[in-house]
Amino acid sequence: MILLDSNIVIYLRDPTLGEKIASQISGLRLHTCNIVIAEVLGFKDIGLEDGRYFEELFTAMKNHIFDNAITNKVIEIRRTVNIKLPDAVIAATALVNGLTLWTHNDDFRNVPGILLFDPLTD
């Protein structure tokens, strides 16, 4: 089970990178969280067509809400690792729900116990 980071979701719309990622996620159950949705759909330069694409994609994904378990894990992460709050929420969501985080972002590498996969380089 995988949680897609915001950058991987956005790369799905790239003509070259999207095909590479899509071939790897075919048939897998995709997961997201509200912070990823907010980062992607809240991008100020998102076009109407891309917005619709991402909205449909998020509808097909299992969304994990920011609950008490995730809040507690965020606190634990931020007390041990220098990481931005949105990234800590994404990392905590992956850890609490036993998900591998697919990302092309090095900011997660020092989070204890997190399983990471970079579909663009691995």
Structural class: alpha/beta
Find the CATH topology. Rossmann fold
* Shape, per Cα inertia axes: globular
Give the count of helical stretches: 6
For the report, how would you describe the main beta sheet?
A: 5 strands, parallel
Strand order of the biggest β-sheet: 3-2-1-4-5
CATH class: Alpha Beta
Please report the total strand number as a whole number.
Answer: 5
End-to-end gap: 17 Å
Question: SSE order in H/E notation?
Answer: EHHEHHEHHEE
Helix content: 40-55%
Indicate the mean pLDDT.
95
The low-pLDDT segments are none
Keywords:
122 residues; alpha/beta; 5-stranded parallel beta sheet; 12% strand
Task: List the topology elements.
Blueprint: E1 2-4, H1 6-11, H2 17-25, E2 30-33, H3 34-41, H4 48-60, E3 62-64, H5 68-80, H6 85-96, E4 100-102, E5 116-117
Parallel strand pairs: 1-2, 1-4, 2-3, 4-5
Helix pairs in contact: 5-6
General description of the model:
This protein has 122 residues and is of the alpha/beta class. The chain has one domain: 5'-nuclease (Rossmann fold). It has 6 helices and 5 strands. Strands 3-2-1-4-5 form a 5-stranded parallel β-sheet, with helices on both faces. Helix 5 packs across helix 6. The protein is globular, with a radius of gyration of 14 Å. The mean pLDDT is 95.
